[in-house]
UniProtKB/TrEMBL annotation:
Protein name: DNA helicase RecQ
Gene Ontology molecular function, alphabetical: 3'-5' DNA helicase activity; ATP binding; DNA binding; four-way junction helicase activity; hydrolase activity; metal ion binding
Entry's Gene Ontology BP terms: DNA recombination; DNA repair; DNA replication; SOS response
Family from the record: Belongs to the helicase family. RecQ subfamily.
Record field: catalytic activity: Couples ATP hydrolysis with the unwinding of duplex DNA by translocating in the 3'-5' direction
Natural source organism: Paenibacillus aquistagni
InterPro entries (alphabetical): DEAD/DEAH_box_helicase_dom, DNA_helicase_ATP-dep_RecQ, DNA_helicase_ATP-dep_RecQ_bac, Helicase_ATP-bd, Helicase_C-like, HRDC-like_sf, HRDC_dom, HRDC_dom_sf
Essential cofactor(s): Zn(2+); Mg(2+)
Gene3D superfamilies: HRDC domain (1.10.150.80), P-loop containing nucleotide triphosphate hydrolases (3.40.50.300), Winged helix-like DNA-binding domain superfamily/Winged helix DNA-binding domain (1.10.10.10)
Lineage summary: Bacteria, Bacillati, Bacillota, Bacilli, Bacillales
Domain of life per record: Bacteria
E.C. numbers: 5.6.2.4
Listed SUPFAM superfamilies: HRDC-like, P-loop containing nucleoside triphosphate hydrolases, Winged helix' DNA-binding domain
Length: 526
């Protein structure tokens, strides 16, 4: 008899004790019980496990789960076992006898879910055994690892498709249903997942990136250290995480907090295992309210009452930001995610990219990701809308909670400033970066400006009443707003996009809630 959603709900209640599926889960499970290949994209904490576990429990045969980390496998299997579900994993920590024992149990139908690392699929020995396991369903966790454009490429994920092909071609084998899951896939990575896992006419379900209880804010031009201190003091009784990009920065911030009498923890890869574990425990059990950390902190932490996540620096891409900021408000209570942006962050992130020994193509891609992160810091639109679009989810309803939605400053017509900027870029042959353009508009006579003869341009000094920083900021806003484009690479150049040309021709106006560093007063003086 065909499996129905009612059966699925019963399993949810009986096994997990939950009353209903979340929206995304329902859609994914509907597709899977109709045996359609599916890609599920949901943020961390969105409830991906249930999406494959419930169908796995409903159908005949074994579900093979591909999982990249031994610790993740173990957590999942422990959780399932405690719910009374027959689950097991095989990984490199076990000897052959143990692996054989588990495979025999799976063969006898005593196991419903078997977790394996992708490397396992590369072995012919495993393939032979797999044929006799009658794998009905293959669930691929952390599926972005298959894509070079994801943030965590794993070569062994490329073994999944050949494995399935061989399984299907084997005289006693058949192709299982496949579902792929990830928390962080841009539309580009999603396409890679579909192509490289050879999914057949898959359904795509992207949901849950909207976090109704999170208020996102980007602050540019703050004195970060003073801001952070005050921010934490104002929230002395709340749990919070402060992320910084380097160990040194973590140490500095931590020291400052402690000096001001705040009981703060710190966490980075330079500390001993014991120290890190102790810090983590102290934070989880509320012995310290605030923890200052690099991105090494947070993996696998399920602390529900984190009231704020403050980013002292801009992270390297939106995937990282969403993951880290998303650790706030797991309990659904109102929480804040604040990003303190400073142009130096761009330099730091580009430095990190240059440090990596990788292909020029890969570098260009990483630069692009940094730029999209910078755009987030400058966009005037709803920050959640920007975020959702980044992950391919379309929802244009403004969140009404973020810094941009709540920004009550009036829209100012900045068409004239924009025209000056655009024509300056045009006269500079669209071959220079943001800071050079800002220097020319400011009227600087620095060596480079003179060398190129830009002091003789009619646009030289056209925005001299503004600071160079304010001009740069405005250019970044115009980039984020789609008037200007940036080339890829370490030293990106700015070019005009079609909307900018319309502005130059006087066919289009530019409205802006004026950026903090661009006080309306300054503009009024134009
Ligand atoms: P992910 O793998 O997407 O990070 P998990 O599968 O670990 O997320 O689920 C996150 C949390 O949400 C878990 O504590 C899980 O038990 C809970 N959860 C998942 N689905 C539901 C549901 N339908 N109702 C209530 N809680 C749920």
């Amino acid at each position: 008899m065909a499996i129905t959603m009612q059966d699925a709900r019963q399993v949810l209640e009986r096994v997990y004790g939950y009353e209903q599926f979340r929206d995304g889960q329902k859609l994914i499970i509907e597709h899977l019980i109709e045996r359609k290949d599916t890609v599920g994209i949901m943020p961390t904490g969105g409830g991906k496990s249930i999406c494959y576990q419930v169908p796995a429990l409903l159908q005949h045969g074994l579900t093979l789960v591909i999982s990249p980390l031994i610790s993740l496998m173990k957590d999942q299997v422990d959780a399932l076992t405690s719910l009374g579900v027959e689950a097991a994993y095989i990984n490199s920590s076990q000897d052959t006898a143990e692996v054989n024992r588990i495979l025999r149990r799976a063969q006898a139908g005593e196991i419903k879910l078997l977790y394996v690392a992708p490397e396992r699929l590369e072995s012919d020995w495993f393939l032979e055994r797999a044929v006799s396991l009658r794998i009905a369903f293959l669930a691929v966790d952390e599926a972005h690892c298959v894509s070079q454009w994801g943030h965590d490429f794993r070569t062994s994920y490329r073994a999944i498709a050949p494995f399935v092909r061989k399984l299907a071609a084997h005289e006693f084998g058949e192709r299982p249903l496949i579902a792929a899951f990830t928390a962080t896939a841009t539309p580009e990575v999603t396409e890679d997942i579909i192509r490289l896992l050879e999914l057949q006419s898959p359904e795509k379900v992207i949901t849950g990136f909207k976090r109704d209880n999170l208020a996102f804010t980007v602050l540019r031009g703050e004195d970060r250290s003073a801001f952070t201190l005050q921010y934490v003091k104002d929230r002395a009784h709340q749990s919070g995480i402060i992320y910084a990009s380097t160990r040194r920065e973590v140490e500095n911030i931590h020291e400052q907090l402690v000096k001001s009498g705040i009981k703060a923890g710190r966490y980075h890869a330079g500390l001993s295992d014991e120290e890190r574990e102790a810090m983590q425990e102290a934070f989880i059990y509320d012995d310290v309210r605030v923890i200052v950390a690099t991105n090494a902190f947070g993996m696998g932490i399920d602390k529900s009452n984190v009231r704020y996540v403050l980013h002292y620096n801009m992270p390297k891409h939106m995937e990282a930001y969403v993951q880290e900021a998303g650790r706030a408000g797991r309990d659904g209570e109102p929480s804040e995610c604040v990003l303190l942006f400073h142009p130096q962050d761009i330099v730091t992130q580009k430095f990190f990219i240059e440090q990596n020994e990788t292909t020029p193509e890969r570098k260009a891609h990483e630069y692009k990701k940094v730029q999209l992160m910078i755009d987030y810091c400058y966009t005037p639109e709803c920050l959640q809308t920007y975020m959702l679009r980044y992950f391919g989810e379309h929802d244009d309803t403004p969140c009404m909670m973020c810094g941009n939605c709540k920004d009550e400053r009036e829209q100012v017509d900045i068409t004239i400033e924009a025209q000056k900027i655009f024509s300056c870029i045009y006269r500079m042959n669209q071959r220079f970066g943001v800071s050079m353009i800002a220097s020319v508009l400011k009227g600087s006579k620095n060596k480079k400006v003179i060398q190129y003869g830009f002091d003789r341009l009619s646009t030289h000094g056209e925005l001299r009443h503004m600071t160079e920083k304010a001009i740069s900021d405005l250019i970044y806003v115009l980039i984020a707003d789609g008037f200007l484009g940036l080339s890829e690479g370490q030293y990106p150049t700015v070019r005009l996009l079609a909307p900018a040309v319309e502005v130059i021709k006087g066919e289009r106006k530019v409205q802006q809630k004026v950026a903090q560093s661009l006080k309306p007063k300054t503009l009024a003086a134009v």
